[in-house]
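Request from the bench team (R.T.):
"We need a structural guess for the complex before ordering more thiamine diphosphate. Sequence and SMILES attached. Just send the tokens back."

Command: build protein-thiamine diphosphate structure.
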Amino acid sequence: MSAAAHEPTHHTLSVLVENKAGVLARVASLFARRGYNIESLAVAPTDDEAFSRITIVVDVESAPLEQIVKQLFKLINVVKISELDPRQSVERELLLATVRASGENRARVLELVQIFEGKILNVGHTEMTVSLEGNPVKVDDFESLLRPYGIVELQRTGRVALPKLDRTV
Amino acid sequence: MQMNGGQALIKSLEMEGVEVIFGLPGGAILPVYDPIIDSPIRHVLVRHEQGAGHMAEGYAHVTGRPGVAMVTSGPAATNIVTPLADAFMDSVPMVVITGQVGSASIGTDAFQEVDTVGITRSITKHNELVTDAADIPRVIREAFHIATTGRPGPVLVDIPKDIVDPTNPRSAMEWYWPETVDLPGYRPTTVGHHRKIREAAELIGRSRRPVIYAGGGILKARAAEALRELAELTGIHVVTTLMARGAFPDSHELALGMPGMHGTYTAITAMQESDLLIALGSRFDDRVTGKLDGFAPDAKIIHVDIDPAELGKVRRPDVPIVGDCRLVIEELVGVLREMGGAESQPDRSEWRSRISGWQERFPLTYEPSEPGELLKPQYVLEQLRDAPTTPEDTIVISGVGQHQMWTSQYWRFDHPYTWVNSGGLGTMGFSVPAAIGAKVGRPDRTVWAIDGDGCFQMTAQELVTAAAERIPVKVAILNNAYLGMVRQWQEMFYEERYSEVYLSPDLPDYKMWAEAMGCVGMRVESPEEVPAAIEKANSINDRPVVIDFRTDAREKVFPMVPAGATNSQVVVDPTQQGQAR
Ligand SMILES: Cc1ncc(C[n+]2csc(CCOP(=O)(O)OP(=O)(O)O)c2C)c(N)n1
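Reply to R.T.: structure attached below.
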């Protein structure tokens, strides 16, 4: 299943910020103050420890993108903003799930994890903790196929993304 | 040189050329107040921290230099929130220093601790909690740089007590002064895009019904002279928004006055019927545009602003130009000259005659009072404006309400930086402290605050500051005994159901109150008394003066574009309502 052919339903902004106290709060409160919905947000230091990168996903509806970018750029600690076209970037999320996996379910869950190239992280008598790293669509699919078995706990990270390289193979 | 953080803070302010701080001390900021005794910087001790903030704003409005306020933590910091929001809305350069509890107590709900940086995050251009005494000079240098460059605005610096307290080893630092600022994310664009400026010139050259829509950005950019050159070269009329009053002389033949909800009929209608709006440092505020859908439907838009976020925020410009207004206008004038100057402008005589027709038919007007009746506020303003003892370059400050609109309408602003006002936030209680700040910044000028009785009661106590500090401002209260502007809306839109707007004309007794605060107090009830009272007030220069003008509460501000209406639905004065438009 590929999202490449569809109109994007979200904008992904990759925001390089100074690695200083309170910068994430500034960015998040700007979104709140201007009434933009954050779908997902992930932040971590970059290779240069003076800077962090925040990946923000906003849905297309709530978001006059140009205004968001301009308003964000007014924050003194924001150094650079790039919009990542979902069609032109690689996007990743990580899912961790503990699912019911007793009796015959166990084999089915194992099979699912295998098909999706996920990992088994932890196995108990009646439950199993699995992980999957992949593009958000794949992670969505995995989650919905796992759900019928009974999800006990689920955690997904925010999305991170980088632009696709020119002429990748 | 070894210093403690408090000394370094004051020294940093000296390095920035600060001549005055408006403030009030308290526990958390105490160590910073100690070195003030040895500093040449003047400190004005306010009676309420809101006053300190508005004084800093008033100072900045008239001098163009950043105003500085300093207060302690907790309740003092929350008291200065309103001025911060006000300065943010009106792009006023200001640096506010707040004390904070000691670093170890931050986050513990300690006595007088509030999350000042959190509270003020969305109403400052930037704010910062300093965590290390050694950072103080750098942070102060950056604060002034940020406050005064690009689109100006307020910057707040929050300083924990331990890093300024000489008895605490954490406050020890080696003095330095950073020669440059290193802010990798902050690079305001000042020079406009040449090709866009050329496009703008071409668009101007093709337009038959252009209007220059000048905003407060003209004043911030020191672009009043450039604006005048542009207007005169092209012969294009100019509207000056509430924030821009004085940026273009009202006595100029191309001046149309203020647009918007209570603008002049001609300014509103000329914008509405224009085929080109040249928006310079103006932000298409809803009070100017009226209902956005119907605003200036035929107009193409050239929009010049130093803040890229303003371009397209409200109305998409045909020619967007990011840059400093002065630099862009100067370049635009150059291009227009190259293209043939005044001669190459199209024939706009038809437009000019329509404009002068509106001006003739719909001047500002009011019914003078009959003998024995209360004063008309407009009359008071005309008398004040035209009094031979009132200097022509008098600085005028207003509160918020009907008196504010009448002042903007009836004063004649012929000089930039003579009008100080709370435009974006509309802060009642702005005028008295802002007037004090303005007078501190321009002691050579006569400063008149025109206030409403409601507004006056919010911050009048700062007249104690003015009296104690010998800052001789003059205050005219247009006392209509009501929260007048609200009353006007209730009269027009709530079937005269006057809910909670009556204040009483005699409570308090303003004359006695003024005198109790160390001012000269006067009360004026009839038209004949007005000139003498003004003359007396203008002659007093050693203390503040307050005149309680008893005005007619029934008077309403016209023209008016009702909220939610388009600018084509402007309601004119009742005496003009039969006129053909
Ligand atoms: C701090 C604050 N509170 C409330 C308002 C809403 N408001 C706007 S104008 C006004 C009435 C002002 O009355 P007054 O100062 O007597 O002036 P007038 O309109 O009578 O000239 C009010 C309550 C405001 N702008 N600011």
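Two things stood out. Chain B touches chain A through 18 residues (CB under 8 Å). The pocket of thiamine diphosphate is lined by residues B 399-403, 426-428, 452-455, 478, 480, 482-486 (CB under 6 Å).
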